[in-house]
## 1
Amino acid sequence: MAQHPLSANLRYGKNLAVIRTIDLTKRFGKLVAVDGLNLEIEEEEIFGLLGPNGAGKTTALLMLTTVLKPSDGSATVGEYDIKSDPDKVRRLIGISFQEPKLLWISTPWDVLNWHAKVCGLSSSDRRTKVKWVLEELNIWADRHKRVHALSGGTKKRVEVAKILIQRPKIAIIDEPTAQIDVVGKHKIWNMIRALRDEGSTIILATNELYEADELSDRVAIMHKGRLLVCDSTKNLKDSIPGGDIMEISLDKEITEKALEEIKAIEEVVHITTLNPDHLRVNLNQAERVMPKIMNLLFKRGLSISSVNMSEPSLDDVFVHYTGLTIEEAERKA
Amino acid sequence: MAKVWLVAERDFRTFIRFKFVWILRAIWFIAQIALFGLVSTRMFIVPNYFDFYVGGVIITLLYSTTMFIGYDIFEEAEHGVTDYLLSLPVSRRELVLGRSVGGGLRSFVYVGPLMVGVLLLIGITNPLNFLIAFTSLFLFAFGVSGLSILLAVGIKSHDKYDIFLGVFDALIVRFSTALYPMAYMPQAYSTIARINPLTFAADIFRWGAGVESYLTSPWIPIVGLFLFFFTFVFAGVTFYERRLEGGGWE
């Protein structure tokens, strides 16, 4: 296999970058759906691509799967360029679409069986895997029903089932649990984790920030076609000034001196005195600072009756970087 | 090549599921022969017009059944299945070849039994000629399938395709020898009919079945069908490779 000219620069984290986009752009007439996207996705990670509907996530993913052709820029998947080697790219990558892509007249069994065949599974392997995934996703009973007779959730399960049968080197899963009940969600999350543990790289596009938080090793936030930020979930949460919240209840009223000393800690951003014996501290890197604060209070003879810690969610991260909640961003999009 | 067959197999299975389409088309075919064919034979001065007509109608049926793949493509685009097909580990070339083969083959399998019925009705005088004609009709079916895919992908609008096809069907059938011999056409019409693939297919079928085909040489339609096949399958592949991408369907 010929080495790609970019491959020398691909290793940047603990693993090799299997996807790299350089100024990847897609225009539909005057609309710039994806605007100069620069991304690197590591091997065997779950990479969350976040953003409201209309942010450009799906368009970016369709370019990576060679379904759409970029207007500008380039991308490599594995060692292959999506423009010059699309056939080779598609051998590495598989996608479970946001909207189930099923012909109304087909049945889940036919869809999955043919998908397995076209992805190169042997006859025996195909039967085993199709049966397994139909049972795991609770669609075995509906396997011979026509698609138009299936519920939205079942159609979505069939769409997700495709990627779970294919088990590609790079799996793109767009909104994996939309319309799926809580039990089904957890099952699919576990199956996605198992796919990663087997060595696949997962790109998870979602506007469900909780889902991204649960599954992703790193996340990127897209808004209006542009990449705003990309990092591990921990670093992103830590990047919000005062994002961590520590609520402390004391046995007696806090002294002015102790309050001043806590305020003087570098990572402490803000203190709210809810009651004279109850404080809310907004701070950075809470796990590192919490022992300092507790020591300080002990030294001042203040006993702690309870401590509650909360870290920012990805919703908070989204608000921090866009100035909008995801719902507001969707309305504006 | 295995992927080409897999794509063709999918189109074949999809077609089988559209029972109402093939039942209605069979009814149309029987009505054309039993009603129009029998009545028009009494009116027309063409000798053995019934045999001539039946040979033409079966080719028209083969053509219209094969063109159905274009509707499949719109059906798929409407449900987003086009994006799915484009994301699969199948090259664009394999995909369009598979669809051309699938579209042609499935209509052949469907029209086959009706064709046997036609042959029983009019009889075969020379089996070797018929074998040559039959093989040529494969080229015709694959070419029509390629043409249909090309039109669907080029037009990218279900409504426009539907209207376009209504006009296109009317013209391609009427400017051909499917329904009447070239000898009875005005000069301007016969000039167009001479290069019409439907003329080639109808003429070669009649020649193979031993019906009066008004042909001076069977090689004219055979070469014509080969060129038609080559143009619309291989030019279709090139067009498909360069133009087709997901989204943008009306």
## 2
Amino acid sequence: MNDFRNQDPAFLRGMTQRRLGRRDAFRLAGLSAAGLALAACGVQGKRVAQPTSSAEAQSAVQQYWSGKVKNGHVDFANWPLYMDPKQPELKQFTDQTGISVTYSEVIQENASWFAKIQPLLAAGQSINYDLMVVTNGIQFSQLVELGYLVSLDHSKLPNFAANAGPRYKSEAFDPGNVYSIPWTSGMTGIAYNPKYIDTPPTSYAAMWDPKYKGKVGMMADSQEIGNFGMFLLGIDPEKSTPADWEKAAAKLKEQRDAGIVRKYYDQSYVDPLSKGDIWMCQAWSGDIFQKNVSDGTDLKFVIPDEGATIWTDNMMIPKTAANPVDAIMLMDFFYDPKVAASLAEYINYVTPVPAAQAIIKADADAASGDDKKTLEEVAASPLVFPSEADYAKLRSYRSFKNTDEQKQYENIFQAITTA
Amino acid sequence: MRTLRARLTPYALIFPGGLWLAIFFVVPTLVMLSLSLQSGNVVDGFAFTWNWHSYVDGITTYHDQIIRSLLYGLAATVIQILIGFPVAYWIAFKGGSNKSVYLFLVLLPFLVSFVLRTISWQFLLSDNGILLGPLRDAGLLPQDFRVLATPYAVIGGLSYNFLPFMILPMYVALERIDPRLLEAAQDLYASRMQTFLRVVLPLSLPGVFAGVLMTFVPATSDYVNSSVLGGTNTTMIGNVIQNQFLVNQDYPVASALSFTLMALLLIGIFVYARALGTEDVLEVAAR
């Protein structure tokens, strides 16, 4: 304090006294003007009208693609664990086409990815990626509704036309593949650690069994956890009503309040499962396979008798992409059965290219030792090549008619996970 | 000329900091205030409608999480005082010529990222990990005992992560105490306990006050510890706000909750400052 005595009095005054007067009036006026300006602007929404006829859709395609040329480069945004880190497929693509690819594993979660790119797309700015992978679901619908996605020119997708399984050409969330083609599909089922669980769970009821108190992991994602509650009750999530959601939520609340659930996880459930913090959890099919292959763990994944959730991660081009032609060429490249087989061998998720199965079998015959065993397993795996009987048991997420309905759904299930 | 320069000096000095605050604090705060009163959704856009409902909805839905956050923050702060005060005291009075080494040791964990440090707790405290596994095998812990995914883990993580912010201000206050005061107290026949209670403790209170401010506020609004170390029923208000912003894109409710939390913390701090009589404390410190 003493030091202040030696200071210039002006300094002391400036530090200690309040000055009222014109200056304050200006300041206040400035502040409230800024406030008003902010109040007035709000956040712009830009819902765009969807094409109502095929002619309209066709003209949208022509309008966008006319005059677009190959630039020799593509920036690809994808999720982790969705490609061999050595990226052999991308090298092959570059060799074949001369187009270089920058591959970034930047997408961790649909919601946060959407939150990141939405302001840029709303402002018409580049997100620095020409190709991205988003799951069917709330954010995908929002991208479509907001007109952030390029209408695909199917004349540039010959491999897709020739090789995609019929199911992947008629997905309910994007009929006619106007905006997207699948990267891969996967299932959400039950994973368990056989070190702690002797009898493999065959029903969702196992996750409500009090003997696993504190050892069950559920997902925080409201669509994933909602589906589990509904499957337990025998409700088809695709056709569910708000009353069904309440019933499912009541079951999930019961499970939580009985102390059975240890935690609601994002993708971080694999480690606790292998360490034994949890014995059983909601899981995505390919994750468990990849963990077993990379870390030598012996985790198991089951599709319960009641059925399970199937989702599709889709490739799409954002409207502000700098290299759309290169991007669509890469999309089509992944539908070459050889490329699809090579991808499936590594990631072990459902490939949208059925012809890949024969190629993986051939690869298995040519391989030896552990590799042979792994490849044979992949070729025979219902998680990579589900049979029609398997598909019959699989259900999608509930799609929402409008944002109010979606909000209602989220509120019901987030009351469970964010308590 | 000289007087003009002298008059401008304080403003020139405050200019960089002031500009920083204006751009990164005042503007975002105003944007958030405006957002908290808007209604709409991310697809149709948001419009300013004096929509106070976000506050009402936010508080009625999430009052449990708000109260829990305040309690966790308070618990962590008390634990930090109990752990931090002896440490600060010891460094200030018994640290000798190695004081800076000890202070560096206090700060050392900060060279590692906050999130990584918290995740390493996950590793250490895992049910079958290097700590709990052997204890359970030896029969010292019940079979279903766990630390992770409990409120204790969250409070422990909060206490650990913000501890240096408690120790450093307390150390500064204790270090400034003139040793001659202690000698004087002894000359006046004060016992060691009396010296501590009537000389050291009052003089250290400004440090404790600053430490509480620097730990209670961030601990209460933290979301990393709860999401990494917590389980069910340990969600803090920070997690809810993050979820509303990034998952639901419900910007109005997220902003309203942020403002509610800010208001509660400000009220808490003012009450605390009054109750502790900060002005007296500061006067003592200045003497």
